[in-house]
Amino acid sequence: MKKILAGLLAVGSALAQTTGDWGRAIGTDMMQKPMYSGTHTVIMTIFLIGLTIAVWLWAIKLWKEIKRMK
């Protein structure tokens, strides 16, 4: 049980790290290339927010499943 939770935590933190890295990379990219339209930024932001929400919902679903199995 604890191994599963530790695994979930590791995956979650890895995802958060990756999302943060992407955000930083996109931000840096925007600064260097002003020719990018605001649309690109908006699309990427929405994508990252959607990804984060999806991961959270999946984690909550898994958490409920684990609690039910106990």
Structural class: mainly alpha
What's the count of strands? 0
What percent of residues adopt helix (DSSP H or I)? over 70%
Mean pLDDT level: 76
In N-to-C order, the SSE pattern is HH
Q: Give the total of domains.
A: 1
Uncertain stretches: none
Strand content: under 5%
Taking the alpha carbons of the first and last residues, their distance comes to: 9 Å
Largest sheet, in brief, is: none
What's this model, at a glance?
The chain has 70 residues and is mainly alpha-helical.
SSE inventory with pairings:
Elements: H1 2-32, H2 38-69
Helix pairs in contact: 1-2
Describe this structure as you would to a colleague.
By secondary structure, this protein is mostly helical. It has one domain (13-69). It has 2 helices and no strands.
Protein traits:
70 residues, 2 helices
